[in-house]
UniProtKB/TrEMBL annotation:
<dbReference type="InterPro" id="IPR004007">
    <property type="entry name" value="DhaL_dom"/>
</dbReference>
<dbReference type="GO" id="GO:0047324">
    <property type="term" value="F:phosphoenolpyruvate-glycerone phosphotransferase activity"/>
</dbReference>
<protein>
    <recommendedName>
        <fullName>phosphoenolpyruvate--glycerone phosphotransferase</fullName>
        <ecNumber>2.7.1.121</ecNumber>
    </recommendedName>
</protein>
<keyword id="KW-0418">Kinase</keyword>
<keyword id="KW-0808">Transferase</keyword>
<dbReference type="GO" id="GO:0005829">
    <property type="term" value="C:cytosol"/>
</dbReference>
<comment type="pathway">
    <text>Polyol metabolism; glycerol degradation.</text>
</comment>
<keyword id="KW-0319">Glycerol metabolism</keyword>
<dbReference type="Pfam" id="PF02734">
    <property type="entry name" value="Dak2"/>
</dbReference>
<dbReference type="GO" id="GO:0004371">
    <property type="term" value="F:glycerone kinase activity"/>
</dbReference>
<dbReference type="InterPro" id="IPR012737">
    <property type="entry name" value="DhaK_L_YcgS"/>
</dbReference>
<comment type="subunit">
    <text>Homodimer. The dihydroxyacetone kinase complex is composed of a homodimer of DhaM, a homodimer of DhaK and the subunit DhaL.</text>
</comment>
<dbReference type="InterPro" id="IPR050861">
    <property type="entry name" value="Dihydroxyacetone_Kinase"/>
</dbReference>
<dbReference type="InterPro" id="IPR036117">
    <property type="entry name" value="DhaL_dom_sf"/>
</dbReference>
<comment type="function">
    <text>ADP-binding subunit of the dihydroxyacetone kinase, which is responsible for the phosphoenolpyruvate (PEP)-dependent phosphorylation of dihydroxyacetone. DhaL-ADP is converted to DhaL-ATP via a phosphoryl group transfer from DhaM and transmits it to dihydroxyacetone binds to DhaK.</text>
</comment>
<dbReference type="GO" id="GO:0019563">
    <property type="term" value="P:glycerol catabolic process"/>
</dbReference>
<feature type="domain" description="DhaL">
    <location>
        <begin position="2"/>
        <end position="203"/>
    </location>
</feature>
Length: 206
């Protein structure tokens, strides 16, 4: 059985491993702090979850993650990802195991949280351009009767395709929107970090 703490550690480690890459992406179209912000946030997350028992349930662990990110990550991404994790926590109360249906419910709750807070839609060159296609692909795979591995792989592939798509569009939310057309040709840092996190969690869930 997968433990929530192990899943979060995998996600956080993937973010920390990509600190420089994410920062370079944000240097091109933002203020060059996305990797630094996110790595700092997950260092804080690790401190907080280390204090929890190893078998702590998903909802409690994810709530801890959300609160740690909100309190330690500045900028746009901290509150947005923090809200996403808090909403995901709310969507898996009392669950000891996360099946794909629950995972999709959690992803959708996270997306709703990001949209409530940041007011962005698909196609604005943000993290949503990875997360929304991931959810859609998961939903389609589930409807097609695919097994959980296939559903998770489809979600990760759709997120990665979403990152590629962000290269082709103009940013209309966040700092990158200040660049207007000059944001074209660059992939969105937040869509990239979302895909990195999704890939890490799906690898653990599979
Ligand atoms: P900041 O731009 O404040 O320095 P970060 O660099 O940490 O914050 O995060 C930038 C990322 O946040 C962007 O790449 C984008 O994906 C995401 N983002 C910015 N504004 C929004 C929004 N309104 N909705 C969703 N995501 C957003
Ligand atoms: Mg930034
Ligand atoms: Mg910043």
């Amino acid at each position: 059985m997968i433990r929530a703490k192990d899943a979060v550690k995998a996600v956080g480690q993937a973010v920390i491993d990509n600190k420089v890459f994410l920062t370079e992406l944000d240097q091109a179209i933002g203020d060059g702090d996305h990797g630094i912000n996110m790595a700092r946030g997950f260092e804080r997350v690790f401190e907080k979850i280390d204090a929890l028992q190893d078998d702590t349930d998903f909802s409690t662990v994810l709530k801890t993650v959300g609160m740690a990110l909100i309190s330690s990550v500045g900028g746009a991404a901290g509150p947005l990802y923090g809200t996403a994790f808090l909403r995901a926590a709310g969507a898996c109360k009392d669950k000891t195991e996360i099946d794909v249906v629950t995972a999709k419910t959690m992803l959708d709750a996270a997306i709703k949280g990001i949209q409530d807070r940041g007011k962005a839609q698909k196609g604005e060159k943000t993290m949503l351009d990875a997360l929304i296609p991931a959810s859609e692909a998961m939903g389609k795979s589930l409807a097609d009767g695919k097994d959980s591995r296939a559903c998770l792989s489809a979600a990760v592939q759709a997120a990665a395709d979403g990152v590629e798509y962000t290269k082709t569009i103009i940013a209309t939310k966040g700092r990158a929107s200040y660049l207007g057309e000059r944001s074209i040709g660059h992939q969105d840092p937040g869509a990239t970090s979302s895909t990195i996190m999704l890939e890490a969690v799906c690898k653990v869930l599979k």
